[in-house]
Amino acid sequence: MSLILGILIPFIGTTLGASMVFFMKKEINNKIEKFLLGFASGVMIAASIWSLIIPAINMSEHLGRLSWIPASIGFILGIFFLIILDFIISRLHIINNRKYKINYKYKKTLMMVLVVTLHNIPEGMAVGVAFAGAIIGNTGITMIGALILAIGIAIQNFPEGAIISMPLKSQGMSKLKAFNYGTLSGIVEPIGAAITILLTSFVVPVLPYLLSFAAGAMIYVVVEELIPECQQEESISIGTIGVSIGFVIMMILDIALG
User: Fold this and answer.
1) Which of 58, 141, 145, 233 has the most Cβ atoms closer than 10 angstroms to its Cβ?
2) Residues 52-57: what's their mean pLDDT?
3) From CA 44, how far away is CA 75, in angstroms rounded?
4) What is the mean pLDDT of residues 58-78?
Protein backbone atom coordinates (compact mmCIF):
# COMPACT_ATOMS: atom_id res chain seq x y z
CA MET A 1 0.00 0.00 0.00
CA SER A 2 2.82 2.41 0.91
CA LEU A 3 4.48 1.64 -2.44
CA ILE A 4 1.34 2.57 -4.41
CA LEU A 5 0.87 5.75 -2.38
CA GLY A 6 4.54 6.61 -2.79
CA ILE A 7 4.55 6.51 -6.58
CA LEU A 8 1.29 8.51 -6.68
CA ILE A 9 2.56 11.34 -4.44
CA PRO A 10 4.34 13.32 -7.23
CA PHE A 11 1.21 13.11 -9.38
CA ILE A 12 -0.84 14.51 -6.50
CA GLY A 13 1.53 17.49 -6.34
CA THR A 14 1.01 18.23 -10.04
CA THR A 15 -2.76 17.90 -9.67
CA LEU A 16 -2.86 20.32 -6.74
CA GLY A 17 -0.80 22.82 -8.73
CA ALA A 18 -3.10 22.52 -11.74
CA SER A 19 -6.11 23.11 -9.48
CA MET A 20 -4.92 26.68 -8.88
CA VAL A 21 -6.63 27.52 -12.17
CA PHE A 22 -10.00 27.34 -10.38
CA PHE A 23 -8.99 30.37 -8.28
CA MET A 24 -8.31 32.51 -11.36
CA LYS A 25 -10.62 35.32 -12.37
CA LYS A 26 -12.31 35.24 -15.77
CA GLU A 27 -9.73 37.53 -17.36
CA ILE A 28 -6.06 37.78 -16.45
CA ASN A 29 -4.25 41.12 -16.39
CA ASN A 30 -1.61 41.52 -19.12
CA LYS A 31 1.16 42.26 -16.62
CA ILE A 32 0.19 39.26 -14.50
CA GLU A 33 0.29 37.07 -17.62
CA LYS A 34 3.80 38.34 -18.45
CA PHE A 35 4.86 37.67 -14.86
CA LEU A 36 3.48 34.12 -14.99
CA LEU A 37 5.28 33.43 -18.27
CA GLY A 38 8.50 34.70 -16.71
CA PHE A 39 7.83 32.68 -13.56
CA ALA A 40 7.29 29.54 -15.66
CA SER A 41 10.59 30.23 -17.45
CA GLY A 42 12.46 30.53 -14.16
CA VAL A 43 10.88 27.35 -12.79
CA MET A 44 11.77 25.39 -15.91
CA ILE A 45 15.37 26.67 -16.05
CA ALA A 46 15.97 25.76 -12.40
CA ALA A 47 14.25 22.38 -12.79
CA SER A 48 16.40 21.65 -15.85
CA ILE A 49 19.60 22.28 -13.89
CA TRP A 50 18.92 20.84 -10.44
CA SER A 51 16.25 18.20 -11.17
CA LEU A 52 17.65 16.91 -14.45
CA ILE A 53 21.17 17.86 -15.57
CA ILE A 54 22.98 17.64 -12.22
CA PRO A 55 21.35 14.28 -11.33
CA ALA A 56 22.24 13.02 -14.83
CA ILE A 57 25.90 13.94 -14.25
CA ASN A 58 25.87 12.43 -10.75
CA MET A 59 24.44 9.17 -12.10
CA SER A 60 27.36 9.02 -14.54
CA GLU A 61 30.10 9.36 -11.91
CA HIS A 62 31.49 5.96 -12.85
CA LEU A 63 32.72 7.56 -16.10
CA GLY A 64 35.09 9.79 -14.17
CA ARG A 65 36.07 12.92 -16.07
CA LEU A 66 33.75 11.86 -18.89
CA SER A 67 30.65 11.95 -16.67
CA TRP A 68 29.42 14.94 -18.69
CA ILE A 69 28.95 12.88 -21.86
CA PRO A 70 25.49 11.35 -21.19
CA ALA A 71 24.14 14.72 -20.00
CA SER A 72 25.53 16.51 -23.06
CA ILE A 73 24.21 13.95 -25.54
CA GLY A 74 20.78 13.83 -23.95
CA PHE A 75 20.56 17.63 -23.75
CA ILE A 76 21.43 18.12 -27.42
CA LEU A 77 18.97 15.39 -28.48
CA GLY A 78 16.26 17.10 -26.44
CA ILE A 79 16.91 20.42 -28.18
CA PHE A 80 16.84 18.87 -31.65
CA PHE A 81 13.72 16.86 -30.83
CA LEU A 82 11.83 20.08 -30.01
CA ILE A 83 13.26 21.87 -33.07
CA ILE A 84 11.92 19.10 -35.31
CA LEU A 85 8.59 18.97 -33.47
CA ASP A 86 8.20 22.75 -33.67
CA PHE A 87 8.94 22.62 -37.41
CA ILE A 88 6.36 19.89 -37.97
CA ILE A 89 3.67 21.77 -36.03
CA SER A 90 4.42 24.97 -37.95
CA ARG A 91 4.30 23.19 -41.32
CA LEU A 92 0.99 21.53 -40.52
CA HIS A 93 -0.42 24.94 -39.64
CA ILE A 94 0.84 26.52 -42.85
CA ILE A 95 -0.32 23.66 -45.11
CA ASN A 96 -3.89 23.44 -43.91
CA ASN A 97 -4.95 24.81 -40.55
CA ARG A 98 -8.55 23.69 -40.97
CA LYS A 99 -7.78 20.18 -42.11
CA TYR A 100 -5.47 19.41 -39.18
CA LYS A 101 -7.53 21.46 -36.71
CA ILE A 102 -4.44 23.03 -35.14
CA ASN A 103 -5.30 26.04 -32.96
CA TYR A 104 -2.09 28.02 -33.36
CA LYS A 105 -3.14 30.27 -30.49
CA TYR A 106 -2.30 27.49 -28.03
CA LYS A 107 0.97 26.40 -29.67
CA LYS A 108 3.26 27.97 -27.08
CA THR A 109 1.44 26.54 -24.06
CA LEU A 110 0.88 23.13 -25.64
CA MET A 111 4.62 22.94 -26.29
CA MET A 112 5.10 23.67 -22.59
CA VAL A 113 2.66 20.89 -21.73
CA LEU A 114 4.77 18.52 -23.80
CA VAL A 115 8.11 19.46 -22.24
CA VAL A 116 6.80 19.39 -18.67
CA THR A 117 5.38 15.95 -19.45
CA LEU A 118 8.77 14.87 -20.84
CA HIS A 119 10.40 16.27 -17.71
CA ASN A 120 8.02 14.26 -15.51
CA ILE A 121 8.86 10.92 -17.16
CA PRO A 122 12.47 10.67 -15.90
CA GLU A 123 11.42 12.18 -12.54
CA GLY A 124 8.89 9.36 -12.20
CA MET A 125 11.62 6.90 -13.13
CA ALA A 126 13.87 8.39 -10.43
CA VAL A 127 11.14 7.76 -7.87
CA GLY A 128 10.79 4.21 -9.21
CA VAL A 129 14.55 3.65 -8.83
CA ALA A 130 14.37 4.81 -5.20
CA PHE A 131 11.47 2.50 -4.35
CA ALA A 132 13.10 -0.38 -6.23
CA GLY A 133 16.23 0.13 -4.14
CA ALA A 134 14.16 0.13 -0.95
CA ILE A 135 12.44 -3.10 -2.00
CA ILE A 136 15.73 -4.84 -2.84
CA GLY A 137 17.02 -3.90 0.59
CA ASN A 138 20.80 -3.91 0.02
CA THR A 139 21.20 -0.52 -1.68
CA GLY A 140 21.22 1.74 1.39
CA ILE A 141 17.87 3.24 0.35
CA THR A 142 15.03 2.91 2.86
CA MET A 143 11.29 3.08 2.19
CA ILE A 144 11.15 6.28 4.28
CA GLY A 145 13.91 7.77 2.15
CA ALA A 146 12.05 6.90 -1.04
CA LEU A 147 8.86 8.47 0.36
CA ILE A 148 10.74 11.66 1.24
CA LEU A 149 12.06 11.83 -2.33
CA ALA A 150 8.52 11.39 -3.69
CA ILE A 151 7.21 14.15 -1.40
CA GLY A 152 10.05 16.46 -2.47
CA ILE A 153 9.24 15.92 -6.14
CA ALA A 154 5.53 16.46 -5.41
CA ILE A 155 6.29 19.88 -3.89
CA GLN A 156 8.42 20.73 -6.93
CA ASN A 157 5.56 19.61 -9.19
CA PHE A 158 3.09 22.05 -7.62
CA PRO A 159 4.30 25.13 -9.55
CA GLU A 160 4.72 23.02 -12.69
CA GLY A 161 1.04 22.05 -12.66
CA ALA A 162 0.09 25.70 -12.18
CA ILE A 163 2.27 27.02 -15.01
CA ILE A 164 0.44 24.72 -17.44
CA SER A 165 -3.18 25.21 -16.40
CA MET A 166 -3.15 28.96 -15.71
CA PRO A 167 -1.73 30.15 -19.07
CA LEU A 168 -4.18 27.87 -20.89
CA LYS A 169 -7.06 29.48 -19.00
CA SER A 170 -5.74 32.96 -19.78
CA GLN A 171 -5.78 32.06 -23.50
CA GLY A 172 -9.49 31.26 -23.42
CA MET A 173 -9.62 27.57 -22.48
CA SER A 174 -12.19 26.55 -19.86
CA LYS A 175 -10.97 26.07 -16.30
CA LEU A 176 -11.84 22.37 -16.31
CA LYS A 177 -10.06 21.68 -19.58
CA ALA A 178 -6.99 23.68 -18.48
CA PHE A 179 -6.97 21.73 -15.20
CA ASN A 180 -7.14 18.46 -17.12
CA TYR A 181 -4.12 19.40 -19.25
CA GLY A 182 -2.14 20.31 -16.14
CA THR A 183 -3.13 17.08 -14.41
CA LEU A 184 -2.42 14.87 -17.41
CA SER A 185 1.14 16.23 -17.63
CA GLY A 186 1.81 14.52 -14.31
CA ILE A 187 0.13 11.16 -14.95
CA VAL A 188 3.32 9.92 -16.64
CA GLU A 189 5.16 10.00 -13.30
CA PRO A 190 3.43 7.10 -11.53
CA ILE A 191 3.44 5.20 -14.85
CA GLY A 192 7.18 5.79 -15.26
CA ALA A 193 7.79 4.85 -11.63
CA ALA A 194 5.84 1.58 -11.94
CA ILE A 195 7.60 0.58 -15.16
CA THR A 196 10.99 1.38 -13.62
CA ILE A 197 10.29 -0.76 -10.56
CA LEU A 198 9.45 -3.67 -12.86
CA LEU A 199 12.39 -3.07 -15.25
CA THR A 200 15.00 -1.42 -13.02
CA SER A 201 18.02 -3.20 -14.50
CA PHE A 202 17.10 -2.05 -18.02
CA VAL A 203 16.02 1.52 -17.24
CA VAL A 204 18.76 2.72 -14.87
CA PRO A 205 21.61 2.71 -17.47
CA VAL A 206 19.73 5.11 -19.79
CA LEU A 207 18.24 7.34 -17.08
CA PRO A 208 21.00 10.01 -17.36
CA TYR A 209 20.18 10.40 -21.06
CA LEU A 210 16.45 10.65 -20.35
CA LEU A 211 16.97 13.25 -17.63
CA SER A 212 19.13 15.50 -19.80
CA PHE A 213 16.88 14.94 -22.84
CA ALA A 214 14.00 16.42 -20.84
CA ALA A 215 16.25 19.31 -19.77
CA GLY A 216 17.11 20.13 -23.38
CA ALA A 217 13.45 20.11 -24.36
CA MET A 218 12.54 22.43 -21.49
CA ILE A 219 15.32 24.92 -22.25
CA TYR A 220 14.26 25.03 -25.90
CA VAL A 221 10.71 26.05 -24.98
CA VAL A 222 11.97 28.63 -22.47
CA VAL A 223 14.31 30.29 -25.00
CA GLU A 224 12.11 29.92 -28.09
CA GLU A 225 8.65 30.57 -26.68
CA LEU A 226 8.34 31.77 -23.09
CA ILE A 227 11.03 34.42 -22.59
CA PRO A 228 10.34 36.23 -25.91
CA GLU A 229 6.64 36.31 -25.02
CA CYS A 230 7.12 37.66 -21.48
CA GLN A 231 9.49 40.38 -22.76
CA GLN A 232 7.04 41.87 -25.26
CA GLU A 233 5.49 45.32 -25.03
CA GLU A 234 5.94 47.45 -21.92
CA SER A 235 6.26 44.68 -19.35
CA ILE A 236 9.95 43.81 -19.78
CA SER A 237 10.82 44.22 -16.10
CA ILE A 238 7.72 42.28 -15.02
CA GLY A 239 8.78 39.26 -17.07
CA THR A 240 12.36 39.45 -15.78
CA ILE A 241 11.15 39.65 -12.19
CA GLY A 242 8.99 36.59 -12.83
CA VAL A 243 11.99 34.66 -14.20
CA SER A 244 14.05 35.57 -11.14
CA ILE A 245 11.37 34.60 -8.62
CA GLY A 246 10.50 31.36 -10.41
CA PHE A 247 14.16 30.38 -10.68
CA VAL A 248 14.94 31.07 -7.01
CA ILE A 249 11.83 29.28 -5.70
CA MET A 250 12.46 26.18 -7.81
CA MET A 251 16.17 26.20 -6.96
CA ILE A 252 15.36 26.28 -3.25
CA LEU A 253 12.82 23.47 -3.60
CA ASP A 254 15.22 21.33 -5.63
CA ILE A 255 18.16 21.80 -3.26
CA ALA A 256 16.21 21.62 0.00
CA LEU A 257 14.05 18.68 -1.04
CA GLY A 258 16.19 16.97 -3.70
Assistant:
1) 141
2) 86
3) 14
4) 90
Residues contacting 254, CB < 8 A, separation 6+:
46, 47, 50, 51, 156
Compute the mean pLDDT over every residue in the chain, rounded to the nearest whole number: 79
pLDDT tens digits for range 185-195:
889 889 988 88
Polymer length of the chain: 258
The CA-based angle 214-15-17, given to 5 degrees, is: 80
Closest CA to 217 of 79, 84, 112, 72: 79
Which of 30-34, 94-98, 172-176 bottoms out in mean pLDDT, i.e. has the lowest? 94-98
Compute the CA torsion angle 5, 10, 11, 13 (nearest 10 deg).
Answer: 110
- As a whole number of angstroms, the distance between CA 70 and CA 62 comes to 12
